[in-house]
Amino acid sequence: MTKPSAPLDSEHGAAVYSDRVLKIYDRWVLGFSNNYAWKCPTDAVLLPFFRQHLSSNHLDVGVGSGYYLAHSSGQPGQKVALLDLNDNSLRAAGSRIAHVQPSLVRDDVLHPAGALGGRKFDSISLFYLLHCLPGTMTEKARKVLSTLVPHLTPGGVLYGATILGEEANHNWLGRRLMALYNRKGIFGNRHDTLASLQSVLNEYFAKVAVWQVGKVALFRAEMPLP
Ligand SMILES: C[S@@+](CC[C@H](N)C(=O)[O-])C[C@H]1O[C@@H](n2cnc3c(N)ncnc32)[C@H](O)[C@@H]1O
Protein backbone atom coordinates (compact mmCIF):
# COMPACT_ATOMS: atom_id res chain seq x y z
CA MET A 1 0.00 0.00 0.00
CA THR A 2 1.42 3.44 -0.83
CA LYS A 3 1.65 5.85 2.09
CA PRO A 4 -0.32 9.08 1.53
CA SER A 5 2.18 11.95 1.36
CA ALA A 6 2.20 14.36 4.32
CA PRO A 7 0.72 17.83 3.72
CA LEU A 8 3.45 20.22 2.56
CA ASP A 9 4.60 22.43 5.43
CA SER A 10 4.87 26.02 4.17
CA GLU A 11 6.20 27.62 7.32
CA HIS A 12 10.00 27.29 7.05
CA GLY A 13 10.32 28.51 3.46
CA ALA A 14 8.74 31.84 4.41
CA ALA A 15 9.65 32.32 8.08
CA VAL A 16 13.29 33.25 7.49
CA TYR A 17 12.40 36.60 5.84
CA SER A 18 12.67 38.88 8.86
CA ASP A 19 13.24 42.63 8.42
CA ARG A 20 16.94 42.02 9.16
CA VAL A 21 17.26 39.29 6.49
CA LEU A 22 15.35 41.39 3.96
CA LYS A 23 17.79 44.29 4.52
CA ILE A 24 20.73 42.17 3.35
CA TYR A 25 18.78 40.04 0.85
CA ASP A 26 19.67 42.02 -2.28
CA ARG A 27 23.38 42.04 -1.53
CA TRP A 28 23.64 38.46 -0.25
CA VAL A 29 21.27 36.58 -2.59
CA LEU A 30 20.89 38.75 -5.67
CA GLY A 31 24.45 40.06 -5.61
CA PHE A 32 26.86 37.55 -4.10
CA SER A 33 25.03 34.18 -4.27
CA ASN A 34 23.63 34.62 -7.76
CA ASN A 35 27.08 35.46 -9.10
CA TYR A 36 29.28 33.02 -7.21
CA ALA A 37 27.08 30.10 -6.09
CA TRP A 38 24.18 29.88 -8.55
CA LYS A 39 26.08 31.40 -11.51
CA CYS A 40 23.00 33.21 -12.78
CA PRO A 41 23.69 36.94 -12.56
CA THR A 42 20.80 39.15 -11.53
CA ASP A 43 21.69 42.16 -13.68
CA ALA A 44 22.57 40.28 -16.88
CA VAL A 45 19.98 37.47 -16.78
CA LEU A 46 17.24 37.58 -14.15
CA LEU A 47 16.31 41.27 -14.15
CA PRO A 48 16.08 41.50 -17.98
CA PHE A 49 13.96 38.32 -17.99
CA PHE A 50 11.68 39.75 -15.28
CA ARG A 51 11.23 43.00 -17.22
CA GLN A 52 10.67 41.23 -20.53
CA HIS A 53 7.33 39.72 -19.47
CA LEU A 54 6.12 42.33 -16.99
CA SER A 55 2.66 43.48 -18.12
CA SER A 56 0.59 46.43 -16.98
CA ASN A 57 -1.54 44.03 -14.92
CA HIS A 58 0.98 41.95 -12.98
CA LEU A 59 1.03 39.56 -10.02
CA ASP A 60 4.37 38.90 -8.29
CA VAL A 61 4.38 35.80 -6.08
CA GLY A 62 7.00 35.25 -3.37
CA VAL A 63 8.07 38.87 -3.33
CA GLY A 64 11.06 38.90 -0.96
CA SER A 65 12.60 42.37 -0.91
CA GLY A 66 10.76 43.56 -4.03
CA TYR A 67 14.02 44.09 -5.93
CA TYR A 68 12.78 43.18 -9.41
CA LEU A 69 9.73 45.42 -9.37
CA ALA A 70 11.72 48.26 -7.81
CA HIS A 71 14.15 48.02 -10.76
CA SER A 72 11.51 47.80 -13.47
CA SER A 73 10.04 51.00 -14.79
CA GLY A 74 6.60 49.48 -15.34
CA GLN A 75 4.05 50.45 -17.93
CA PRO A 76 1.66 53.37 -18.09
CA GLY A 77 -1.22 52.71 -15.70
CA GLN A 78 0.77 49.87 -14.12
CA LYS A 79 -1.24 47.66 -11.76
CA VAL A 80 0.70 45.34 -9.46
CA ALA A 81 -0.43 42.81 -6.88
CA LEU A 82 2.03 41.20 -4.47
CA LEU A 83 1.31 37.79 -2.96
CA ASP A 84 3.34 36.33 -0.11
CA LEU A 85 2.88 34.30 3.05
CA ASN A 86 5.19 36.58 5.01
CA ASP A 87 4.02 40.03 6.14
CA ASN A 88 7.61 41.35 6.33
CA SER A 89 8.17 40.56 2.66
CA LEU A 90 4.86 42.14 1.67
CA ARG A 91 5.68 45.29 3.64
CA ALA A 92 9.26 45.56 2.35
CA ALA A 93 8.34 45.00 -1.30
CA GLY A 94 5.18 47.09 -1.06
CA SER A 95 7.01 50.10 0.35
CA ARG A 96 9.64 49.94 -2.41
CA ILE A 97 7.01 50.33 -5.11
CA ALA A 98 4.56 52.46 -3.16
CA HIS A 99 4.32 54.82 -6.18
CA VAL A 100 2.26 52.22 -8.09
CA GLN A 101 0.04 51.54 -5.06
CA PRO A 102 0.40 47.75 -5.17
CA SER A 103 -2.26 45.59 -3.65
CA LEU A 104 -0.82 43.35 -0.92
CA VAL A 105 -2.23 39.84 -0.70
CA ARG A 106 -1.23 37.56 2.16
CA ASP A 107 -1.75 33.94 1.22
CA ASP A 108 0.01 30.59 0.99
CA VAL A 109 0.61 29.26 -2.53
CA LEU A 110 0.61 25.70 -1.23
CA HIS A 111 -2.53 25.99 0.90
CA PRO A 112 -4.37 29.02 -0.50
CA ALA A 113 -7.20 30.60 1.44
CA GLY A 114 -8.48 32.22 -1.75
CA ALA A 115 -7.26 35.73 -0.93
CA LEU A 116 -6.93 36.62 -4.65
CA GLY A 117 -10.67 36.09 -5.13
CA GLY A 118 -11.61 36.14 -8.81
CA ARG A 119 -8.78 38.47 -9.91
CA LYS A 120 -6.96 37.75 -13.18
CA PHE A 121 -3.55 38.96 -14.36
CA ASP A 122 -1.79 39.26 -17.73
CA SER A 123 1.54 38.27 -16.20
CA ILE A 124 2.45 36.29 -13.07
CA SER A 125 6.06 36.03 -11.87
CA LEU A 126 7.45 33.51 -9.42
CA PHE A 127 11.14 34.15 -8.99
CA TYR A 128 13.05 32.04 -6.45
CA LEU A 129 9.84 30.69 -4.92
CA LEU A 130 9.73 27.01 -5.94
CA HIS A 131 13.13 26.14 -4.45
CA CYS A 132 11.92 27.53 -1.07
CA LEU A 133 8.97 25.13 -0.96
CA PRO A 134 9.02 21.64 0.52
CA GLY A 135 8.13 18.42 -1.34
CA THR A 136 9.11 17.02 -4.70
CA MET A 137 9.05 19.36 -7.69
CA THR A 138 6.01 17.48 -8.99
CA GLU A 139 4.06 17.88 -5.74
CA LYS A 140 4.89 21.52 -5.06
CA ALA A 141 4.73 22.80 -8.63
CA ARG A 142 1.32 21.14 -9.10
CA LYS A 143 0.03 22.87 -5.94
CA VAL A 144 1.45 26.24 -6.99
CA LEU A 145 0.12 26.01 -10.52
CA SER A 146 -3.32 24.84 -9.33
CA THR A 147 -3.34 27.97 -7.15
CA LEU A 148 -2.09 30.43 -9.77
CA VAL A 149 -3.21 29.30 -13.23
CA PRO A 150 -6.89 30.19 -12.59
CA HIS A 151 -5.68 33.79 -12.05
CA LEU A 152 -3.96 34.08 -15.44
CA THR A 153 -5.82 35.62 -18.39
CA PRO A 154 -6.06 33.35 -21.48
CA GLY A 155 -3.36 35.37 -23.28
CA GLY A 156 -1.22 35.79 -20.17
CA VAL A 157 2.25 34.53 -19.26
CA LEU A 158 3.51 32.85 -16.10
CA TYR A 159 7.27 32.98 -15.70
CA GLY A 160 9.99 32.57 -13.14
CA ALA A 161 13.25 31.08 -11.96
CA THR A 162 14.22 28.46 -9.43
CA ILE A 163 17.51 27.05 -8.16
CA LEU A 164 17.94 23.42 -9.19
CA GLY A 165 18.87 20.54 -6.90
CA GLU A 166 21.87 18.25 -6.84
CA GLU A 167 21.57 17.42 -10.55
CA ALA A 168 22.90 20.90 -11.29
CA ASN A 169 26.34 19.85 -10.05
CA HIS A 170 26.85 22.76 -7.68
CA ASN A 171 30.27 24.22 -6.95
CA TRP A 172 31.88 24.18 -3.49
CA LEU A 173 30.02 27.29 -2.31
CA GLY A 174 26.73 26.15 -3.81
CA ARG A 175 27.00 22.72 -2.14
CA ARG A 176 27.58 24.34 1.24
CA LEU A 177 24.66 26.75 0.86
CA MET A 178 22.40 23.97 -0.47
CA ALA A 179 23.24 21.72 2.50
CA LEU A 180 22.68 24.49 5.06
CA TYR A 181 19.48 25.88 3.55
CA ASN A 182 17.93 22.43 2.95
CA ARG A 183 18.79 21.38 6.51
CA LYS A 184 17.08 24.46 7.92
CA GLY A 185 14.05 24.15 5.61
CA ILE A 186 14.81 27.50 3.93
CA PHE A 187 15.17 25.54 0.66
CA GLY A 188 13.43 22.28 -0.27
CA ASN A 189 15.15 21.72 -3.59
CA ARG A 190 17.66 18.90 -3.12
CA HIS A 191 15.91 16.71 -5.72
CA ASP A 192 14.47 19.43 -7.99
CA THR A 193 15.20 18.79 -11.67
CA LEU A 194 14.70 20.71 -14.89
CA ALA A 195 12.81 17.75 -16.40
CA SER A 196 10.31 17.53 -13.54
CA LEU A 197 9.64 21.28 -13.71
CA GLN A 198 9.09 21.06 -17.47
CA SER A 199 6.77 18.10 -17.14
CA VAL A 200 4.52 19.78 -14.52
CA LEU A 201 4.34 22.97 -16.60
CA ASN A 202 3.27 20.85 -19.57
CA GLU A 203 0.31 19.56 -17.53
CA TYR A 204 -1.06 23.12 -17.23
CA PHE A 205 0.08 24.95 -20.38
CA ALA A 206 0.12 24.35 -24.14
CA LYS A 207 3.26 26.45 -24.65
CA VAL A 208 6.21 26.00 -22.29
CA ALA A 209 9.88 26.94 -22.40
CA VAL A 210 12.35 25.86 -19.73
CA TRP A 211 16.10 26.48 -19.87
CA GLN A 212 19.07 26.60 -17.54
CA VAL A 213 21.54 29.37 -16.71
CA GLY A 214 24.22 28.29 -14.25
CA LYS A 215 22.41 26.29 -11.56
CA VAL A 216 19.06 28.01 -12.12
CA ALA A 217 16.06 26.92 -14.20
CA LEU A 218 14.22 29.73 -15.97
CA PHE A 219 10.73 29.10 -17.30
CA ARG A 220 7.97 30.74 -19.28
CA ALA A 221 4.51 29.23 -19.78
CA GLU A 222 1.65 30.48 -21.96
CA MET A 223 -1.74 29.28 -23.21
CA PRO A 224 -3.21 27.74 -20.05
CA LEU A 225 -4.99 24.46 -20.76
CA PRO A 226 -8.71 24.33 -19.89
C1 LIG B 1 13.75 33.68 -1.89
S1 LIG B 1 12.44 34.83 -1.68
C2 LIG B 1 12.22 35.34 -3.35
C3 LIG B 1 12.18 36.82 -3.49
C4 LIG B 1 12.17 37.39 -4.90
N1 LIG B 1 11.10 36.87 -5.71
C5 LIG B 1 13.49 37.19 -5.57
O1 LIG B 1 13.59 36.44 -6.55
O2 LIG B 1 14.47 37.78 -5.12
C6 LIG B 1 11.04 33.76 -1.43
C7 LIG B 1 9.76 34.48 -1.05
O3 LIG B 1 8.70 33.50 -1.10
C8 LIG B 1 7.87 33.64 0.03
N2 LIG B 1 7.23 32.34 0.32
C9 LIG B 1 7.82 31.21 0.76
N3 LIG B 1 6.92 30.23 0.89
C10 LIG B 1 5.72 30.74 0.50
C11 LIG B 1 4.41 30.22 0.41
N4 LIG B 1 4.14 28.94 0.75
N5 LIG B 1 3.40 31.01 -0.05
C12 LIG B 1 3.67 32.31 -0.41
N6 LIG B 1 4.89 32.87 -0.32
C13 LIG B 1 5.92 32.09 0.12
C14 LIG B 1 8.82 34.10 1.14
O4 LIG B 1 8.14 34.73 2.21
C15 LIG B 1 9.73 35.06 0.37
O5 LIG B 1 9.22 36.38 0.36
TrEMBL record:
SUPFAM superfamilies named in the record: S-adenosyl-L-methionine-dependent methyltransferases
GO MF term list: methyltransferase activity
Transmembrane segments: none
Coiled coil (residue ranges): none
One Pfam short name: Methyltransf_12
Stated name of the protein: Methyltransferase type 12 domain-containing protein
Methyltransferase type domain ranges (all copies): 59-158
Gene3D superfamilies hit by this protein: Vaccinia Virus protein VP39
InterPro entries with a match to the protein in the record: Methyltransf_12, MeTrfase_VrtF, SAM-dependent_MTases_sf
